[in-house]
Fold these 3 entries.
Entry 1:
Amino acid sequence: MITLTQAAADKIRELMAEQPGEVYLRLFVQKGGCEGFTYGMGFDDRTETDDEVLEQHGIRLVVDPLTRRVLDGAQIDYRRTPMGEGFAVHNPRAVATCGCGHSFKTAEDPGEAQPCEEASAGGGGER
């Protein structure tokens, strides 16, 4: 199961209030990045037939089958530090991560790694 901390849910709720209509938070992974997969999230107003909808802290989180598989057991947090603030993914399935923390691979699925210069130029692929 993928979980949201209360801090993440509070920030997501704040951001959702700025969206028109009713939306879900879509959490996804894309093949690419230095290690094989990259994390992504955004708002979506629809679900696909193979999506799973999870509700936590009043937030409806939508994940596709690939995301569900490689992020099973992950926790999404929101942190504020003197150096900045943002969402963080704690993924126990990740066996390797890149230096920036946005790319990972799992023991079961290495994804499709790209050289760092391609990954940082926006070559993340499609979900």
Entry 2:
Amino acid sequence: MVVIILISFALLGSSFITLTYRYTLQEKQEVMARNAEVISEYTSSIQQRGGSLLSTVYQDYVSSFARISDADVLICDAQGHIQLYSSGAIRESLLDMNGYTDAMIPELVRRTIAETGEFSALSNLGGIFAERRYVAGRPVYVTDILNQRHETNLVFVAADSSSLMELWQAVTSIFFFTAVVVLCIAFISSSVTTLHQTRPLKEIADAARKFGHGEFDARVVGYEKRQDEVGELAEAFNTMADSLAQSEAKRSEFIANISHELKTPMTTIAGFADGILDNTIPPEQEREYLKTISAETRRLSRLVRKMLDLSRLQSSENVTAQERFDVVEVMLRVLVSLETKINARHLDVDTSLPEESVTVWGDTDAITQVCYNLLDNAIKFAAGGTAIGIKVAAKGSKAFVSVRNTGETIAPEELPLVFDRFHKTDRSRSVDRDGVGLGLYIVKTILGSHKENITVTSEDGVTEFTFTLTLA
């Protein structure tokens, strides 16, 4: 910022000073040119009438003009010899005791007037003046009886440049003083603003480092009321920290849950196997215990298979294949595959399916797994002798698929958690020992990959899951 401000002021200052200097110089030169033109015309008229340039009238006119215009006047002949000059116009070293001079106008200046009819420059006329001045020169012409013009004299008007330089220096000084003041104000305000911006950033960085070292309670406080980008950044950081803290809590819970799920069957298998090997279990009971070992082994197998399915669903390489299929046909096919379980629980099936097909977009195998998990879950937790309900309806651009059962009511505080990994409404896990608590989580993951939603309600013992699919 300092560099940008300095460069900006340097460019602005150089442009301002250059333009001011050129404008002032041009204005001064135009004034000198007009004065030289006036004296040239007056001198021409005097000579045209036969008057002498050494007359008192002409000399008084030149002296008065010089005083009024605050300039010096030189009258020269055509060869450049100075014939008349206003008081103080010539450097004293060029004058003799009587005030006469042999100084001549430089040939280059005379040639310029002869070729262009004028001369205008910042010059000392070859050393005639002690310092450089703004000089304007004009020729004097006289017309003879044959109506031919002859150059008789040269007129030069010179103005002292010291006043202009003083003005220019004053303007420059004011500009530089103003620039220094503005730069100081800019530096102070920039420092304050930078400190105001960097302090919270450093605090956020410190909080991020603490968070990275495992201090998940680290938060950025004190910027809740700031209505700027820093306030938004602090809010975003705290939101991210809350999310990561929840993820860490879920990870810890996940590890604890999977450890529990693995430990229970493995302890059972190891205990019964050791009992058979050391003859603690009577031979006549070995078969029953071997059945338990087999059941627990299959339970472990189901858990591993579910974990593999879950890993595949959560893999970044998993891409949902979009194809058209009839969701009613898929639901009926799953229902037939679960007929044995339905009959074993003595359940009825209440269906509300449209006669025409309901074609939707999605991955057929994945949606089949969703339907299977929901129906299997409904059968598992339905009270014996009740009915499970299946409903498919098309509304707008969506198909709504519902699975309903009658059993125990899920508490309202438990409803948001039923789709979590390893969540079971029975904390003792004595109910549903065949489940692993991943079925509904897999359902939620599959539908999430399809950009679809699933909801659950549970009132008066009736629990209903409803998910959506996009109509084809």
Entry 3:
Amino acid sequence: MDQIKIGRFISSCRKAKGLTQMQLAEKLSVTDRAVSKWETGKSMPDSSIMLPLCEELGITVNDLLCGEVVSMDNYKEKAEQSMIEMVRGKEQADKQLLMFEWVIAIISVLFLLGFCFIAKFLEMENWLRAVLIITGFVVGLTGLMFAMKIEQSAGYYECRKCRHRYIPTFSSVLWAPHMGRTRYMKCLHCNKHSWQKKKVSASADND
């Protein structure tokens, strides 16, 4: 998805409607800075605001994602291309999130061990020692839970029995026995338990 092209398209459509960035921002209940970022390709409009934006500019969502007005002759082709690019974008974002998960997990463990180390080896009042240990556990466990939430929602798990890929519930991931990102869970499709690996793509064809 070419954000620069989309940004220029938003800008040209806005000007064709005789709107300033401020006027468009007021209609959409956003800041003119947000509109400026869209038009310079620094960011994309949130999915929740795409329909109102398209209505104000007199274009379709497909036009917006393509960065041009799509004719009926190649509408289907452009729509399919936009969908493919969106899927690729999600897969790339999921890869980055799963890498970020490891960073959060490592930092959380270091916080936990660091606070416990300080509490054990430095001279201090018992109440302060208890506060440090509790703080270490709270910070560490909060970080680990956040990392697990990322693992649960980014990408998919593949059932070893039926090869179905799905996003499990957080509780399923939380309580499942695991080895790294491979977890022993019940498939929502075939209802069988198996060791399921984390996959970024929803389709095996894209691995």
